[in-house]
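Hello,

Our lab assistant flagged a job as stuck in the queue for most of the afternoon. It eventually completed. Since we weren't sure the result was trustworthy after the delay, we are filing this so someone can double-check. Below is the sequence as submitted and the structure that was eventually returned. Let us know if re-running is recommended.
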Amino acid sequence: MSSPKSADAARRAAAAAIEARGTDEVEWVRARLPDHLPTLALPSGPVVVVAAHPDDEVLGFGGCIAALLHGGVAVHTVCLTDGEASHTASQPADRALLALRRRGELAAALGELGGLPAPVHAGLPDTALEEYEDQACAVIDEVLVGTGALLCVAPWEGDLHSDHEAAGRAARCAARDRFVPVWSYPVWMWHWARPHDPRVPWHRTAMVALPEAAAARKKAAVARFTSQLESRGPGIGPVLPTAEIAHHTRAFETVIR
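-- returned structure --
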């Protein structure tokens, strides 16, 4: 087990990698991932999709969600935090307002994808999810059982964002106990990694080609997250700048199995 000091250092290094200038989408296009990754067919359902924050599920798996819904597959979503720490506001009232805004954005975004049930909101603390993994596992377990899920989809445990990694671990914990397979989707990996990056388990990575209509629905859903697309204040850019959105509006999505 790592010491608190080494864990803090790892968090700082991960935050620096996410805040740093990322890999341009042009570099990923030149890597021609669709030519090198195996292709997966859309799964059968029911499918439970887990997110650490409102928008993760759309950025990482929204096109697949739209395609699954179009094919009549039941999809259920779980959002573990309300993303209330994405801005610089420190007052509880300001964070509460942002949490409400982000819940509303998520509802609108999921509506763009198709006829989804309302998401299950766990309301766990943003940026502290690793301290609440047992609670997250319990929430996910309840949804897996209640829906009879045949697949769980969750953030990748190696994404460098501590909340994403905690969400991925919690999903695997719950799914393992229920013998449900897990697909993991990366979010920030496209920002800090490079093609052939040894930190990425490419041997376990595959792609799902998106029908044109599903890709269009995903773009419309992403556009609903206005709190993440707008500048957060004077001199503070958006959480998701245009260069980042380019990674998540491709004609395919990628999962790690």
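-- support follow-up --
The delay was a queue issue, not a problem with the job. The result is valid. The mean pLDDT is 93. The longest helix spans residues 92-113.
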